[in-house]
Design brief:
Elements lengths: L1 H11 L3 H7 L22 H9 L5 H5 L5 E4 L1 E2 L11 E12 L8 E6 L5 E6 L5 H6 L6 E10 L2 E5 L3 E3 L10 E4 L8 H14 L9 H7 L4 H10 L4 H28 L10 H5 L8 H14 L6 E6 L5 H14 L3 E5 L3 H14 L7 E4 L5 H13 L4 E4 L13 E7 L6 H8 L7 E6 L5 H8 L3 E5 L9 E7 L3 H13 L3 E5 L7 H19 L3 E4 L5 H12 L5 E4 L12 E6 L7 H8 L9 E7 L5 H12 L3 H12 L1 H5 L14 H20 L7 H12 L3 H9 L1
Parallel strand pairs: 2-3, 5-7, 10-15, 10-16, 11-13, 11-14, 12-13, 14-15, 17-22, 18-20, 18-21, 19-20, 21-22
Antiparallel strand pairs: 1-9, 3-4, 3-6, 4-5, 6-7, 6-8
This protein binds adenosine-5'-diphosphate and magnesium ion (MG).
Magnesium ion binds next to helix 12.
Length: 711
Amino acid sequence: MSMGLQSIGCLSHRPAWARARQIDMRPDILNPLFAEISLFKGVGPALARPLERLGLARAVDVAFHLPVSWVDRHLTDRLDLADAGRVIGIMLTPVDYRAGGSARAPFRVLAADAHGNGVALVYFGRNSGWPRKLLPLNEAKFISGKLEAYGDNLQIVHPDHVLPPEEAGTVPARESVYGLSEGLTNNRMRDLAAQALARAPDLPEWIEPSLLARKQWPAWRDALARAHADPGDAQARERLAYDEIFAGQLALMLVRQSSRRRRGVSIQGDGRLRAMLKLPFAPTDAQRRAIGEIEGDMAQATPMLRLLQGDVGSGKTLVALMALLNAVEAGMQGAMLAPTEILARQHHETLRKMASGLPVEIAILTGREKGKVREATLMGLADGSIDILVGTHAIFQEAVRYKALGLAVIDEQHRFGVAQRMMLASKAERSPHLLVMTATPIPRTLTLTYYGEMDVSRLDEMPPGRQPIQTLVMAASRLDEVVDALARHVDGGGQAYWVCPLVEESETSDQAAAEARAESLKMRFGERVGLVHGRMKGPEKDAAMEAFAANRTRILVATTVIEVGVDVPNSSLIIIEGADRFGLAQLHQLRGRVGRGDKPSTCLLLRGNALGETSRARLALMRETNDGFRIAEEDLKLRGAGEVLGTRQSGEAQMKLATPEHMAALVDSARDDAHLLIERDGGLDSPRGQAARTCLYLFEKDAAVGLLRGG
Ligand code: ADP
Ligand code: MG
């Protein structure tokens, strides 16, 4: 703590210009945490892959890689069949070796406790030299591992600790268990965590004192140490989660504040282009309302920061087009950003079709546009001959200069973060108006959490004439009937998705389930069955998708990889196995794969046989409504925030430390705290503000801090 206070003191005595410089740089105090993990003791090439898979590149990554559970080690001096299944710690003496009969059989070290009871220490897949060296005969060792019954015998497979007796005390009774990856053991991970902790400095306190006192949270470094030592320490975890949420809220507030301070351009188109649109339909009331709200914002000189929420198919594109044309009518340009190249091309096509016949130049720019084409587009943007640019993040690159960017639309699909939005804002002398579109039906109560203080427009009404999706719930025990129905559907020319359940939280088991299902369906449907899962390589996946899109395969067995972006209108049946194991929001997204063509569609939810009350209610809700917002709201009531958001969040919603439960419990305090800091406590230049700045850098919200430079 003292170190932190000193650094604040010295900062605040610097002249203003020096402080202004300081703003852009990570505080020195954090440097040890941002050291590369390759500098750690014992980290060689063998660990490179497993660490990379876990996303552990720097000390801070390891520090925030908190244990997920723990084992309580039963310390004993007597082997006991009654302890089978427990992790024990015991003094044992190796008495004999048993080599395996074949190359694949394990090597066994027979060992005895002080009372003459025996156990086999089992080593798979190693040459016997290593266990022999580790466990010489007749030398007592302290050994820890999970005791298992093997017939009438006891065994420990791959003991987790083998130590000389005098080091027995170094093994803790409660040991943290980390998320691991092949090639990285828990012991190594514990050692890395210890090294990361050793680098973690005491940091100045950024939490508002009365909140800190009320919650009785430990100081940051203490909290970190405690969370590693005892995964059950809820208070320490809560403090760390709070820090992350606070950093997020503060960053959002800074963005908001700086965009308020920035001057934008008041845009009021005269309607001449919009009057020329020949739409085959009338806008829904919800679309009209959203368009009105956006026009109102754009007319202000303060840049708009608005979120447009609308379920898949609710017609967000039309709203975006109206806003873009509003800008073009006023002599300004518009840009529309999509998360992937495919979606960018789709948008480009759609906008051009909708605006055909209008004197509006709509161009595209992605990583694929190169050479002359790219040059021409860049020129057109700079000289103003291009009115609307659609693209991927390529439209942010340094070389891209707009003559007069008035509006940026971000079709977010949950992928873009605050940083990108700000980059976009920096593209123009005057900040452009921003419209962020999302299809994620986040309940009202959670919107603020993820989008901060954006204004929100909602498309809570679907365009008329949608083909209905009938949702049915059936017991999985009626699988034969389901397959018969599938056969009738396919024989009648239809196509169908078959989604396999999440088996635990692992991709491998999802994949196995999908492969097994595909195999069994092939027995009946032969080559008409395709398969796609997350572990497939890109081209292989593309090929499977293409075959289905071209109707060469009729049934696509899939894991949840088809959740977003898949559009095969001819497929009007989706069967979801183990539906009770999915989050409702996810089921809703999956169901959105059908109902896209001219045929009525069906969604068959297969459930387990013994369902609890809540699961029943949830599936009933799916049957009852197609309204994504309602589903999200109800799911929130039924199962809590964690389930609504699912396990796979992305974009800025991605939290390293805070669970959705933390989020729900702490976000209001964090927002208030951030407010107080900015409004009452003197902002980032005050002593607490300096500490908060450290917190922002700790969670890599550098861009938000950088924003202040412009003032
Ligand atoms: P999303 O919100 O998922 O981006 P889209 O903008 O792609 O939805 O719209 C989905 C479909 O609905 C498109 O085919 C679009 O032309 C159509 N659509 C949009 N608005 C209306 C409307 N008011 N009436 C009828 N169809 C509409
Ligand atoms: Mg869309």
